[in-house]
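Predicting holo structure, magnesium ion bound.
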Amino acid sequence: MLIIGHRGASGTAPENTLASFERAIRMGVEMIELDVHRCASGELVVIHDEKINRTTSGKGFVSDKTLHELQQADAGEGERIPTLHEVLRLVNRRAKINIELKGSGVAAPTAGLLHYYKENRGWQTEDFYISSFDHQQLMQFREIDRLSKIGILYERHPHGFIALAKALKATSVNIPMRVVSPELVNEIHSHGLEVWVYTVNNPRLLKRLQEMNVEALFTNYPDRFL
Ligand code: G3P
Ligand code: MG
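Done. Tokens:
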């Protein structure tokens, strides 16, 4: 079972910060997950919400602020909102990265950034995994990048996943724990797709997921599973 550090090790460090990703890597995760938005000055920044209010000392929409303005905010324990570049530099291929396309208009710049890291920094296609609840953005990404692995995110039961997975050449269907059942997992598997489950913080659920042959889980507490 692949254990993915959700927003890093966000149960014990401020989510989506360099400290959180470093902690997850030290816990031994093979993959971290992060969320990407684009700010007013054009950079890809790593933050979950469209506003900075919940996770930082600041207020307002990410898309209204320049990188310089965003960096004034405290993202917890003195951390700042990192750019995707900063996270890649920190991770330096010690873990794979699941980039969740969160804000609008991030598919093309993310594909461009991956291309740059593969061409110039020794990263491999397998080091990246792209996902999104925004299936249009996944299509845009796939038109540019034919190779990277894609997971289709669903908030509820993954109705219509078969056609979409085919169109996207997706690798996995990523579903919340509350909809997981042996029947659903079998159905997804029967179409040659993996099942990735979020967000699992109770280690007692691990056995159940293993029995269903779920391929990966996202957790805020990777050390509970490793
Ligand atoms: O990819 C799993 C999970 O990150 C999806 O939900 O809201 O935590 O980004 P969210
Ligand atoms: Mg996410």
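Helices lie at 18-27, 67-70, 84-91, 107-120, 135-144, 161-168, 182-190, 206-211.
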